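Q: What structure does this chain adopt?
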Amino acid sequence: MRSVIATVTDIFIRNVTKPSVTLALTTTTQLREGKPMRNLRLTLVGLVTLATVGTVSLSAGLSANAAPLPTLASCKTSINADEYAKGKLTVATDTPAYTPWFVNNTPSNGKGYESGVAYAIAKELGVKKSNVVWVHEPFNASFEPGNKHFDFDINEISYTSARAQVVTFSNSYYDVQQSIIALKDSKIVKDHTPAILRTYQYGDQIGTTGLAYIDQVLKPTKSPRVFNSLADAASALETHQIDAIVLDTPDGQYMASSGSGEVVNSKGKNIAIQVGQFPSTGEHYGLLFQKGNKLVGCVNAAIAAMKSNGTLATLQAKWLSIYTSVPVIEP
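A:
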């Protein structure tokens, strides 16, 4: 199974004096029964001490970008003054870049949801496709404070108020929902009314938004079992120690997919299923900018136009049907 780069103990030691710290850990790619596993990102929110881990708030996903938006016409004439490289729109992401966000690890081909969003924004701002330049930015480095070598980073980066203290986020270009992952033969697959959902034994990684959703929204009658890593929670699911894990829909879909090696039986066969996803709580992905970057206003205007004219919905239907087709269930 996957092992996180930093242990929970290390996180507490490094951050015990820093309130409201937000950490995003990428997991290393390892082999399980000879199968490579994709790197997944897990957001740990507001970790201070063991006594305060339970105070993670799901409302932290709400963006604070409430300023009036400039017109796209004005943005088309002013954009050159705000670009990192004049005459070019410099867009960053990590590598490898995974499907369905990108295709063939080639952000510049316009295929995949995030590649499509970047080029659609460029179009709204009057930037030719040939003037969009892609650069590499590691996920963990993107939300560190300091100067950036790009206009914005598009890389499944969740908005949090803590990150927004040192970088600037755009408005949402994709709302992230939490989902339930269980074993295929589990009772929860068919029995998941709001009342019955409260009766199951849940488990999750310490400090995640999934665990916060269990505590704050599902409010089960049994205290959720808390693990040091999502890999440990997945192992507990395999061995029937817990009934379900709550995980954001994209990562949950991967965990439940055949060939992922995340939750398998003794023969290496996938035994997990994504039961359904819950309504949005405001958690979302935003484009990331250097703190105070003036370009964010024009990008927000472009995103607003794309929501209004159906561009975002079209891109989601084309590239994210694997997620949007997951049935919504009521908590």
